[in-house]
From TrEMBL:
Gene3D superfamilies: Glutamate Dehydrogenase, chain A, domain 3, Leucine Dehydrogenase, chain A, domain 1, NAD(P)-binding Rossmann-like Domain
Name of the molecule in the record: Glutamate dehydrogenase
Assembly mode: Homohexamer.
Domain Glutamate/phenylalanine/leucine/valine/L-tryptophan dehydrogenase C-terminal: 219-460
InterPro entries named among the record's database cross-references: Aminoacid_DH-like_N_sf, Glu/Leu/Phe/Val/Trp_DH, Glu/Leu/Phe/Val/Trp_DH_C, Glu/Leu/Phe/Val/Trp_DH_dimer, Glu_DH, Glu_Leu_Phe_Val_DH, NAD(P)-bd_dom_sf, NAD_bind_Glu_DH
Keywords tagged on the record: Oxidoreductase
Origin organism lineage: Bacteria, Bacillati, Bacillota, Bacilli, Bacillales
Record-stated family: Belongs to the Glu/Leu/Phe/Val dehydrogenases family.
GO molecular function: glutamate dehydrogenase (NADP+) activity
Amino acid sequence: MRQLTKIESTQENRSRANDYVHEVYELIKKRNPDEKEFLQATREIFDSLRPVFAKHPEYIRNGILERLTEPERIISFRVSWEDDQGKVHVNRGFRVQFNSDLGPYKGGIRFHPSVNTSIMKFLAFEQIFKNALTGLPIGAGKGGSDFDPKGKSEREIMRFTQSFMTELSKHIGPDVDVPAGDIGVGRREIGYMFGQYNRLKGGYEAGVLTGKDPNHGGSLGRKEATGYGTVYFVEEMLNENSLSFKDSKVIVSGSGNVSTYAIEKALQLGATVVACSDSGGYIYDKNGINLDTVKRLKEVEQKRISEYVKEHPEAEYHEDCTAIWSIPCDIALPCATQNEIDEIAAHMLIGNGLKALGEGANMPCTIEAITIFMENGVLFAPAKAANAGGVAVSAMEMSQNSMRLAWTEEEIDERLKLVMKNIYESCKTAADNFGKPGNLVMGANVAGFLKVADAMVAHGIR
Ligand SMILES: NC(=O)c1ccc[n+]([C@@H]2O[C@H](COP(=O)([O-])OP(=O)(O)OC[C@H]3O[C@@H](n4cnc5c(N)ncnc54)[C@H](O)[C@@H]3O)[C@@H](O)[C@H]2O)c1
């Protein structure tokens, strides 16, 4: 009889959890009908959380999901600036301060014409779980502008960035909100933002931004952290399954910050990277691409990846960047942008023998593509976990700034490796505990959620 009551109550909890998740998702859809990327990000998380609510009804009582999916604050502002010809332009700036239960808001700034409220919200929402997974004291935010840096002069970029920071500076601070870079925002833009912030505040607040130049308050190893961290995480996953990067054929999309250092680490671990891309197209070299050339073209000369074949005629250039996924490989590392791998790309990769995929970019695979990978036994490292190395080293930069000291590159790399290993273990354990062994998508969502949900319960309803 007692046994029966227990089973009934378990079933009751399960159905209450399903109803709760369904109701909250319907509410979010109704409230944000046009935000397709944000809805995609929430749906992907919600699917993982049903067993958590069945086991922990206290999260339902505390309205965790309703609160967790509504940003604490969204700031939207005008950014006016003058081009080199004296013409006035107006862009829109954003900062989404999503959740501060684990620390000051933390997350990058993106400059890209596609930036809108939905993209900012999806990125800031994902950041909640990612930052929680690092185990470091950071909340979650994201910001940016629909400004397109492509084709702009150095001075135009500086004027725009200063104008952007003039407004943003009212809403951030070392203990409030600490932005970093993302697409279109690298060390140069962070430098201009940092200069403008300090000018406006009349002081030197080293901890207000991360991703700074290591010669001026930045951390060694930050530039490399996301790409290296992704490869460290994927290597953990491969080793667990008696595989490794050594002698593997790898494709990395993009040729920006994350891609470059994912390529570098994969090469160091003995892989051959046969292709990379930019938004114009991709290069393919069956013998392995030359990273020095990619770095010079992208980091120094700011040129298109198509220029690569002028120096390496043995390589091929193709204009459609999405066709990069038609090249056979053992490991795919999408490191460019959201939704770059859909069902068609997933089927092509699997047909060509893909064994593992690590998401270096944020949400690079559609939900349908993820399902296809999992159903076909591809080892899958989700972005929230795999690309958390960047924000982890950003948090280390905050620590160094507070202590007014600098750790060595070796110290940072050791800490990064440890963080990525711990994230892998937390994801694996959470997946085991909630009945989906080996499912790192579920593991990452659940492990990140538990950390932030417990803090939200502890901090009361607000
Ligand atoms: N920079 C970080 O520390 C960090 C941390 C975590 C996650 N991310 C995520 O990683 C991704 C890349 O960020 P980044 O900092 O390297 O930006 P970046 O601007 O340095 O590089 C982006 C690269 O992607 C290319 N690209 C853009 N759209 C493309 C497309 N449709 N197909 C192929 N290539 C395309 C660009 O040409 C560029 O080479 C983003 O999703 C970002 O949110 C970045």
